[in-house]
Amino acid sequence: MAASFIGFGALVRGLEIGLLPGLLSTLFVWALPGQVVLVNMYAEGAAFLAVAAAVTLTAVRLLPMVILVISTVRLEGAPRWPLYLLAHFIAVTIWRIAEDGLEELDRPKRVPWLLGVGITLMASMLVMASTGYYLAQSLPPLLAACLIFLTPSFFFISLFASARFAMDYLAIGAGAVIGPAAYHFYPDFDLLVGGLVGGTLAYLVTRRRRRGS
Predict the structure, then answer these.
(1) Which DSSP string corresponds to 14-35?
(2) Do 137 and 113 belong to one domain?
(3) Would you say residue 13 lies in a domain?
(4) For residue range 49-104, what is the model confidence (pLDDT) as tens digits?
(5) Domain for residue 158, yes or no?
(6) Could you give the CA distance from residue 8 to residue 73 in angstroms, rounded to a whole number?
(7) Which of 117-126, 130-139, 163-172 ranks highest by mean pLDDT?
(8) Does 128 share its domain with 172?
(9) Are residues 139 and 171 in the same domain?
């Protein structure tokens, strides 16, 4: 996670949009795929609604994780606002930590514990992103390029690591093919078009195969 945010900071530097927007994306989005989409489309000058739609689509995958974690920490009669605050911090890392460690805690202690973990992680990743940003400025060009490459490499590997079905692999392949073409024709919406069209095609193809079988 630290290496990925170092790479993200270097990516922000490479896009020449300033450190502050990158740090704000960490504070308000707090999911690296959404952050990469946000800063990339921001640097390309995409329309606000297009950026919001793309970031929202990347966040939909987190909804089941949020529901699962909240259901394991909620207390009857307790105030709801800590849960809303906690929901902001729930991404893949917090979900995995919750899966491994919540059962050992008494239920009243779970929300404060997860909030502490979430705030600590976010503060640490703000430092890592800043580190990557300034390293990309001071390192030789080749090493700086390697830092920038950390983030897309992490995502590409994690896509295959999380793939379980034929539709997952087909969506990855379709997105890899469609993405460069989308950048050529629609540079402001390349990630949105590549992900949406590639995922839809994968769904339709595998759905037809299931019906045929």
Answers:
(1) HHTS-HHHHHHHHHHT--HHHH
(2) yes
(3) yes
(4) 888 888 888 788 788 889 989 988 988 888 889 999 999 999 878 887 887 778 78
(5) no
(6) 31
(7) 117-126
(8) no
(9) no
Angle at which helix 92-101 crosses helix 63-73, to 10 degrees, equals 30
What number of other Cβ atoms are within 10 A of residue 79's Cβ? 9
Q: Report in angstroms the alpha-carbon separations of 51 from 3, 42, 54, 192.
A: 25, 7, 5, 9
Q: 3: which 2 tokens?
A: 């290496």
Tokens encoding 5? 């945010």
Domain count, the chain: 2
d(CA 108, CA 87): 17
- The one-character DSSP state at 164 is -
How is residue 63 written in tokens? 């909804």
Model pLDDT for residues 21-47, shown as the tens digit of each residue: 999 999 999 988 888 889 888 888 888
Could you give the CA distance from residue 60 to residue 30 in angstroms, rounded to a whole number?
13
Interacting residues of 162 by C-beta distance below 8 A, sequence separation 6+: 168
Chain position carrying tokens 């994780």: 65
Q: Encoding tokens for residue 102?
A: 């919540």
Is there a single domain that holds both residue 25 and residue 50? yes
Alpha helices in 44-165 (DSSP H): 48-59, 63-73, 81-89, 92-101, 107-138, 141-162
Same domain, 146 and 167: no
DSSP 47: -
Q: Are residues 134 and 53 in the same domain?
A: yes
Q: What is the pTM of this model?
A: 0.72
Contact assessment for residue 21 and residue 42, using Cβ atoms and an 8 Å cutoff: yes
Q: What is the extent of the structural domain holding 181?
A: 163-213
